[in-house]
Amino acid sequence: MSIRQVARAAAVVALFGILSRVLGFVREIVLAGVYGATADTDALVNALFVVNTVAAVLLYVLVTLMIPVFQQERERAGAQSAWALLWAIVGWIGMGLIVLTGLVAIFPEAFIWFFQMGPERAAIASELLRVMAPALMLQGFSALFTAILQVHGRFAGPAAVGVAFNAGILVGVILGAGSLGITAAAWGVSLGAALQVLLQLPQFVRESRAGGGMRVAFSHPRLGSVAVLAIPVAAASILQQVNSFTDKLFASSLEAGRNAALSFANALGSAPRTVLLFPLLVPLFPLIARFFAEQRKDEGVDAFRRAAGILALVSIPLSILMAIGAAEISQVAFGRGKCDSACVAEISAPLVFYGIAVWGNFIGYLLNRTLSAGNHAREIMVATIITVVLTIGLDLLFLGPLQQAGLALASAIAVYVNTGITLWFLRRRAPQLSLRALARQQARILVAGLVAGAVALVPAFLMPDGAGSFWGSVAWLAVVSAVGGLVFIAMARALAPREFADARLSLSNLSFARRR
Predict the structure, then answer these.
(1) What is the C-alpha to C-alpha distance for residues 441 and 451, in angstroms, rounded to an integer?
(2) What is the pLDDT of residues 242-259, one digit of tens each?
């Protein structure tokens, strides 16, 4: 893909990412307003985690493996062999999804037991999980479709699945909350998963016909080697979910509603990744994977360095804004309906630390994708193991004094530790990467962000406290964002002109893509 093609793809992913995130916010707002931070929402959060974990692991493994494996097999043995390998992978995963869905539907209590959330909330969560069981299989097939379509440079359908999923949940809650209560949200999850599959199915069928037609297969000469490659990738993905599980496990031991508050804060904290990070890296990953597959490592490292500069320009000011404006952001997003001032305070406390982690998440995800492009999944697994162990230890340390905010603080610390470890691994695999130059690049942008944040707080301190009202919070955020944004742009142009020029070029390419 050329830079312009990457920009076009990024524009499409950005558009659907924004729509998905907007609907995701609306979904969280509706859930908070209709159900509040209660035992019911705690049960929903945990049941939905079981379903989404399977989809997240599958999507990570399939996208991480299928894109480089398909391209390497096509280079080695031609397109026909690459498609045959792909269908063998699909056959085994599809069969596993059917079996797992049946087990969840018949024995939901076995999957809820791990959360240790008490008999009342466990009974609610088990019933919700039984209703959501079809979504587990459907989201798994949606992950398969996403990987196959991205292999062939098709990003529109996969990018829109979040829109379909959130729309399904909203329809379920809006139509059924009055008569079904929290179960309406579970039916909405299954509806959203079905919409994900229906959305991608036509494009998947077209691509399959171009590759010789759909067929069921369970064997291929390279299937065993791919399975071996998948082990560390799957292990790393599962380990990444372990921290999400322990967050919910520890939060379930707190007062009812704290688990839901942590989930709402996490939704706000992850918004920048969905809207800004994924649109760039989704189309960029196949490009970096091609560089590594063709032994063009210098070009791959250069793409990483330039992407790191652009991501820092975006993520650093967002980190600072979310950290200093957590209360106002929480008020604007959730302060309505059954989510009163106490509910907002419970959300804003962990959001401070999720905001601080935004910068580390952006750079860490880029490092993860770059290592994956070079088929270095073992290093990712090692870094993930270290991070998981560290996070659990920090969870236990901070949970007592800080409650759910302590869990967010532990996650933030672990994000930066993981970023440092994966950077060290990438430097070992790619000696062309200058750590000193990368550190100077990031430090210059960080200084620009800190100066902008400090200047923006001057007029903010002169304003009345708006954290308790919607419009007061909106005004506070508008002033801080406007003043801080102008100062940051001026500082970034002076301190990081090369990165600023790259960002302007990317924006101009995205604008061209949107006009097209």
Answers:
(1) 16
(2) 878 888 888 888 887 888
What integer best gives the mean pLDDT of the chain? 82
Tell me which residue has tokens 């440079």.
153
Number of alpha carbons in the 13 Å side-chain half-sphere of residue 20: 28
Q: How many alpha carbons fall within 13 Å on the CB side of residue 205?
A: 5
Of the candidates 135, 262, 149, the residue with the CA atom closest to the CA atom of residue 200: 149
Residue 250 and residue 395 in contact, taking contact as beta carbons nearer than 8 Å: yes
Q: Please, which residues have CB within 8 angstroms of residue 12's CB and are 6 or more apart in sequence? A: 155, 156, 159, 513
Phi, psi of 434 (to 5 degrees): -90, 110
Mean pLDDT of 103-114: 87
Contact by Cβ (8 Å): 312, 362: yes
Which tokens go with 327? 């209360």
Whose CA is closest to 477, among 371, 366, 355?
355
Q: What CA–CA distance (Å, rounded) separates 48 from 26?
A: 17
Contact 328, 467 (CB under 8 A): yes
Contacts (Cβ under 8 Å, ≥6 apart) of 115: 46, 122, 125, 248, 249, 252
How many Cβ atoms from other residues are within 10 Å of residue 341's Cβ?
A: 12
pLDDT category at 6 given cuts 50, 70, 90 is: low
Band of pLDDT at residue 469, cut at 50, 70 and 90: confident
Instruction: With a cut of 90, say whether residue 432 has pLDDT above it.
Output: no
Q: Which two tokens stand for residue 103?
A: 């087990």
For residue 13, name the pLDDT band (cuts at 50, 70, 90). low
Instruction: Render pLDDT for 31-49 as a digit per residue (tens, 0 to 9).
Output: 888 887 788 888 888 888 8
Query: 10: which 2 tokens?
Result: 């990024």
Contacts of 199 (CB under 8 A, 6+ apart): 157, 160, 161, 164
Of the ranges 42-56, 58-72, 155-169, 322-336, which one carries the lowest mean pLDDT score? Answer: 58-72
CA 484, CA 253: separation in Å to the nearest integer? 39
Contacts of 282 (CB under 8 A, 6+ apart): 9, 10, 13, 150, 155, 158, 159
Length of the chain: 516
**CA–CA distance from 180 to each of 23, 87, 177, 339 (Å)?**
22, 41, 5, 20
Strands (E), 250-324: none
